[in-house]
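=== RUN LOG ===
request id: a7f3
mode: sequence -> structure
chains: 1
length: 394
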Amino acid sequence: MEDSTYNIKTTSQTKRLVSIDLLRGLVMVLMALDHVSGFFSNPGFNPLDLEQSNVPLFFTRWVTHLCAPSFILLAGIAAYLSLQRRSNKKELSKFLLIRGVWLIFLDLTIVSLAWIFSPITFILGVLWVIGWSMMILAVLIQFPVRSIAIIGMTLIIGHNLFDGVQAENTGIWHWFWSFLHEPNMFMPFPGIRFLLAYPLIPWVGVMAVGYTLGQVFTFEKNRRLPWLRNLGFALFGSFLVIRGINIYGDPQPWSVQSNLFKTVLSFINCQKYPPSLTYLLITLSLALLLLYVFDLRSWRLLHPLIIFGQVPLFFYLIHLWVIHFAAIVLALPKYGLTAVTLPFISKSAMPENYGYSLHHVYIIWLIIVMLLYALCNWFANYKSQHKHWWLNFL
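=== RESULT ===
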């Protein structure tokens, strides 16, 4: 059976995947909120800075922390489920290698240019790290699933042991250490900049764990639900204990603030770049619990999110262009044609009087999400009705 309104397949073979598409769609919408805020707001400080921020700004930024861990976890799950439809691991390895190279290429070209209209600036973001993680997973899948789980968990749990290692102190290996564990900027050629936002470790561990978790989605629902619920609560409990001890798991320790509420905000404000153990524990626990909730029953009001979840790469490639062009259009009356060259995501380089209030940011976000829904719904329908080879790359 197919719901023609939302282009959602609901056969017994695909129904179990609806929760995955729902979560993927939700985090993509949240990602759009984060990026709209990045292009349209200019508070002059870090929204997570408890000394200067406020609750709405803090949570507008904090809730989007769910995005990258969920994307990468779901990519690992999808890889495992893909293996069930392929003849052997060799075929899956080939697919992961090609897909990984393709995502890195897209991040260096279409995505980097969408962030900032500069052919000499390359932003190595989430597609970059997903691409590399896929290529490494192409090798890891040759090992037993238990071994892959151990490797993934070791990277997630143990990487904070190396927080004290700084790229600048590693000599000629500084670029390699940044690639592995430390966000940085490189200028390998005069005037050409590479901004590394997502170092590889521990994201490759998240994808490896996602791959092993894919087994759960081959279970029947009455067995799958307890697994998702129990794993989610186990990770959240681990977060509370490790973060509470405040010794290991995050280079940013929490502290008692002027009131209880701010203390709670300090407690949940974990490091994202690179993602600390506690950051991954709280975000992955929420992702698993959302998968559990979405799997409980059919959430018809949320079905539009499934459209986003069905065409994630298409969404990602177009959403930054839509947001960037919208920012230019709204800036034209005030800044004229210079709006075309404004570096919206570089707040220090923007005019001091630029920026919209938070409620305006939310309005712009909702309008952009509705536009993106129309585009994604069209593409999902087109993709389901055509079998062109190039559609496999989107």
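=== NOTES ===
Residues 2-393 form one domain.
Residues 171 and 177 are 10 Å apart (CA to CA).
=== END ===
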